[in-house]
Amino acid sequence: MKPLFYLHLWWMLAEQTYKKSSRFINQCIHTSASLMKVIVRSKWGTKLPAGTAESCIVLGNGPSLKSSLNKHPNVFKSQPLVCVNSFSMSEEFVQLKPNYYVILDYSFWMSDGENVLQTLEAIKTKTSWELHLFVPRMASKSKRFTDLCAANNNIKLTYFNYTVFKGFDSIAHWFYNRNLAMPQSQNVLVASVFLSINMGFKKIMIVGADHTWHQDLFLDENNVLCTKHLHFYEKEEKTTYVPFKKGVHLNETFKVHEIFATWAKAFYGYIALEKYARYKNSKIVNASEVTFIDAFERVKLYN
């Protein structure tokens, strides 16, 4: 039995060594590729507006946000607010007057879809307070956002480098800290929390980050993957299942394994954020009533 035992032990050690070596080599490759992306894509000297308080609240558009807003209205009046995507379509946009607005989806500068145009029109016509609008630098080729700011002087435009950096954490954090790169933001909330950290907020609270997308999936009789999108400002009876397309201009729909792989990237983005927050001596907490994000400490809202 001893020869078999030692053979098994040797095999286990060899396998562990192989896995560690593979991880190290992969990290080297990712780091090298990320460095090249920064050189080619990022603009040095990008400045973000300084945070106006110690803490802020990042508003996700998940269905649970409505409940949080109704139960704890005073919480949202006491701190700077960061909103995302089509928040301007809601009544709460004018009521809460968020300080920061983050847009990441490329459809906002590449598509003429109804939701896109209505969202931008709402930002332009409703904003009567100072609002810092963040969009990726890749959107600077479009006049859509500069025209928006020209039409309303209350809107201050900031372009940020959405250059994904993967690799060794210590090197990634050096570039993150200088606004030259950021974690992969498969979901706009990742970008919003990252920008909040780099604006200097020491405590970032997330609300309305349900991330229950998998519960909205439906596979029809033709094996077409469908989904429904229900945000806090939409009524349940108005939602319908639609084919889950891979892009605004694409007719191809996701396969089941593809969409779960995509969502895995979103959740891993929060793991990367948690590491970066510790590096920056910031704290991220999740106060969403419903959520599948497990990277941050869970807290409850109190008026």
Describe the 3D structure.
With 303 residues, the protein is α/β, with parallel strands linked by helices. The chain has one domain. The protein contains 9 helices and 11 strands. It has helices at residues 2-41, 64-71, 92-96, 107-110, 114-126, 144-151, 169-177, 188-198, 256-279; strands at residues 55-59, 81-84, 100-102, 131-136, 155-160, 203-207, 217-219, 225-227, 242-243, 283-286, 297-298. It has an 8-stranded parallel sheet, sandwiched between helices. It has a 3-stranded antiparallel sheet with strand order 7-8-9, with no helix packed on it. Helix 3 links the parallel strand 2 and strand 3. Helix 8 runs parallel beside helix 9 (256-279). The mean pLDDT is 90.
Write the layout of secondary structure elements.
Elements (H helix, E strand, L loop, with lengths): L1 H40 L13 E5 L4 H8 L9 E4 L7 H5 L3 E3 L4 H4 L3 H13 L4 E6 L7 H8 L3 E6 L8 H9 L10 H11 L4 E5 L9 E3 L5 E3 L14 E2 L12 H24 L3 E4 L10 E2 L5
Parallel strand pairs: 1-2, 1-6, 2-3, 3-4, 4-5, 6-10, 10-11
Antiparallel strand pairs: 7-8, 8-9
Helix pairs in contact: 8-9
Short description:
By secondary structure, the protein is an alpha/beta fold. 40% of the residues lie in helices and 14% in strands.
Question: How many domains comprise the coordinates?
Answer: 1
Number of strands: 11
Helix content: 40-55%
Kindly state the mean pLDDT as a whole number? 90
Strand order of the largest sheet: 5-4-3-2-1-6-10-11
| H and E string | HEHEHEHHEHEHHEEEEHEE
Low-pLDDT regions: none
SS-derived structural category: alpha/beta
Strand content: 5-15%
Q: Termini separation (Å)?
A: 67 Å
